[in-house]
Specification:
The protein is of the alpha/beta class. Helices cover 41% and strands 14% of the residues. The protein has 2 domains: 8-30 and 280-376, Aspartate Aminotransferase, domain 1; 55-276, Aspartate Aminotransferase, domain 2, CATH 3.40.640. β4 and β5 form a beta hairpin. α3 runs parallel beside α10 (265-276). It is globular. The structure holds pyridoxal-5'-phosphate. Residues 32, 93-95, 119, 164, 168, 196, 198, 227, 229, 235, 240 line the site of pyridoxal-5'-phosphate. Its EC number is 2.6.1.-.
Length: 377
């Protein structure tokens, strides 16, 4: 447990809870939780499934129509062919997909290359008995994985490389050229690749999404992970999935029998409807408007800057002038103004002097947060 710390997000979250119980109006820009209702047709599908009595355990792999829908989606949108009967597993959120992949495929004592900064791949690697080893993302290139850093971090004990694009917490999107170089690196070092693509549908400007597994050189070694939480505002439904060649899925499903067995059945039926729809599009348009506003407001504050996020709904700016310590800045601001962000170091050493803004909240609330921040400064 020494290697499984409490997350810094939880510190901020609990402080928000205390403030709200004391009657304060907290502006939440700390959590990666879209503020929209889940689109109505998705809820309707769950209600229909309940009325039809779909309330039981499902196959460990998930219900057949959802697995088929996922395989069709991965073929049509990502150019990857998986067999829905043996190569697709529906999970209880993408979080479980990452956990069971690590538990099944990372041998105790082996190393896992994780981006710095990053979402919670470090503690999950530790839970599986592995050793997380950070590699650098380069702010000057919009947070592309840095090849020199990858080469310096890899060793003969490295088993798996984690890629996350679009990226939490920076909004970076891996370019096609950089993915070419990473593919060579993964093959040369005989690494498995875990590709977390949960923000795939939330991208801006002309940034394309490239799935590593669509490359012949990577298909056999890649576990593609995705989910419904972010694109469809379904964080509470706990629905995600992984897809990989059957040789990799077999051990994962063996582990999976002993974690959550299957994803919630009503959520699985709702997921079938989500995949059939373009229901995420208005939400992505709203995120794009919010991103513009966040960037404008960041620009107006001395000391704060960040590359324009290419995807996801996070900005990762430097702290305002005169507040170099991000932990102190975030906690004082929260105590004094009830505006909640997350200190960058929560996501790794590279977060020193930065903090994360989650613009999964309305334009009004974003403006409210920045107005309070400017007054406070
Ligand atoms: N992967 C990344 C990069 C995330 O940021 C998150 C949630 O914040 C998840 C996975 C977890 O998603 P889920 O709700 O599907 O478990």
């Amino acid at each position: 447990m020494e290697r499984v710390p409490f997350s810094g997000i939880r510190d901020v979250f609990e402080e928000c809870d205390r403030l709200e119980r004391a009657g304060r109006d907290v502006v939440h820009l700390e959590i990666g939780r879209p503020d929209f209702d889940t689109p109505a047709p998705i809820g309707d599908a769950a209600r229909e499934a309940l009325a039809d009595g779909h309330v039981h355990y499902t196959s460990n792999y998930g219900i057949e129509p959802l697995r088929t829908g996922i395989a069709d989606k991965l073929s049509a949108e990502n150019g990857i062919e998986y067999d829905p009967d043996s190569e697709v597993v529906v999970t209880t959120g993408a979080t479980e997909a990452v956990l069971v992949t690590m538990l099944a495929l990372v041998e105790p004592g082996r190393e896992v290359l994780v981006p710095d900064p990053r979402w919670t791949y470090g503690p999950i690697t530790s839970l599986a008995g592995g050793e997380p080893v950070p590699y650098r993302l380069d702010p000057a290139t919009g947070y592309q994985p840095d090849l020199d850093s990858l080469r310096a971090a890899v060793s003969e004990r490295t088993e798996l490389l984690v890629l996350n694009s679009p990226h939490n917490p920076t909004g970076g999107v891996v370019s096609e050229g950089r993915l070419d170089a990473i593919a060579d690196f993964a093959v040369d070092n005989d690494l498995l690749v875990l590709s977390d693509e949960i923000y795939e549908k939330i991208r801006y400007d002309d940034h394309d999404h490239h799935s590593p597994a669509a490359r012949d050189a990577l298909f056999d070694r890649t576990i593609t992970i995705n989910g419904f939480s972010k694109a469809y505002s379904m964080t509470g439904w706990r629905l995600g999935y992984l897809a990989a060649p059957a040789e990799l899925v077999d051990p994962i499903v063996r582990v999976r029998q002993y974690t959550t067995t299957c994803a919630p059945s009503l959520s699985q039926h709702a997921g079938v409807r989500a995949l059939e729809s373009g229901l995420h599009e208005p939400m992505v348009e709203a995120f794009a408007r919010r991103r513009e506003r966040v960037l404008e407001r960041i620009d107006a504050i001395p000391g704060m800057s960040c590359p324009a996020p290419a995807g996801a709904f996070y900005a990762f700016p430097t702290t305002p002038a005169g507040h170099p310590d991000a932990e102190a800045f975030v906690h004082s601001l929260l105590a004094d103004t009830s505006v909640a962000f997350v200190p960058g170091t929560t996501f790794g050493d590279a977060g020193e002097g930065r903090f994360r803004i989650a613009y999964a909240n309305s334009l009004d609330r974003i403006d409210e947060a920045f107005d309070r921040l400017e007054d406070w400064l």
